[in-house]
Amino acid sequence: MEGDAMAVGTSLYSDFLESKSFTLKHRGISVADSEINPILYPFQRDIVRWSLRKGRSALFEDCGLGKTFQQLEWARLLGKRTLIIAPLSVAKQTVKEGRKIDIDVHYTRSGDDITDGINITNYEMVERFDPSKFEAVVLDESSILKGLTGKTRQRLTTMFAKTPYRLCCTATPAPNDITEIANHAEFLGVMTRANMLASFFVHDDTGWRLKKHAIEPFYRWLASWAMAIRFPSDLGYSDEGFILPKLRIIPEIVEIDYRPPGKLFWDGQLKGIQDRAKVRKATRKARVDRTVDLVDSSIDQWILWCGLNAEADTLHRLLPDDSVNVKGSQSPEQKQEAIDAFLGGEIRVLITKCKVAGFGMNFQNCHKMAFVGLNDSYEMYYQAIRRCYRFGQTHPVDAHIVLSDVEYGIYENVLRKEEEAKEMSQYLIENVKEFERAGIHEMTIGREYKAKKAMLVPSWLGGVQAACKGC
Hints:
471 residues; Rossmann fold; six-stranded parallel β-sheet
């Protein structure tokens, strides 16, 4: 009886949401499959057609599924003057990717030299552009919205509020990441954060959580404007060509005799950011030395992810003939020249920070990396690994985590976040994939089917109400 009541409640709530037009309707154009470049995989072609019909949508796809080709085909088929906004290190790579499918992408750092076709610039330069000159906009690596200041994020949303066609591309978010989902919904003009919370969530002592009867409607609403996939099979396609090789995470724990400044001994606890910063600085030499030993033990290409300028500078000094150090202070041209040398095999070791080259770049030429220290950000850790470990990689990928023994708790914290993220990603995909398949094939899901469909809930939530963070 309780299950029947739940199904009836969900059905009534779905009717209420539909009456409010909370699912995004088609606002775009229709194209035939034959109009899309045949180099794209069938699932990519269908997603392009779906996003063109929507007019405004988000592609939440795992790394290596071809978001760049999809966004470029979306812009080409629209035939409108388009501005793609991307992280600094990604823009030039997108220009090169465009050439592979015969699409001209014009890189610009100013609104004075735009073309009538597809233009691309960096997030840092967007203020220089007049949004009224564009009919379409693409946010590449749009998860970067979370890391931008509220003022900058709001400026982007306001700038392109009247742009008819909008597309966001990034990796699959966690379904409990209210901030990321709300940022995308607001930018696309789907729903404001306030309306989203009022429609689907309730607030209590535990924070924001999905209303009982809103679980299915929330995911149906999400699937009406976003495609969230990890594998082509999530949408019913073959995974051939998208099976990843093995990923080996290898902790490299360096034992040191650490004593905090002004104390006789260390109590075994890292308390907050200041403690972490002190330990990272104090253990730099030991971690750098271990990293150099790793690089010298093979002839392969390496990426060394640093968190401190001193780490990167010391590594570059100890590996003078083999390495290049890509810094945030360098000009775009200097960064691009160094990255091109690494991609072309002229440089064996790329030394950089996650925030400089850890988002959007394709480093499949490399299958060995080392984190020269670690912070508590799982997203940076995940994104950095995915620069090499992505669909199209043909070698097993080795990721070495070089830490002092007193920093091991940071590694454990990142591993905990990783397990939580995997479970939440599975939860999201399972709950939206039927609605997404329906959207791809322009089908409708009958009431009887929806009433019987069980919405999955991750075990660690302990119930049918999904707890949400970031509110």
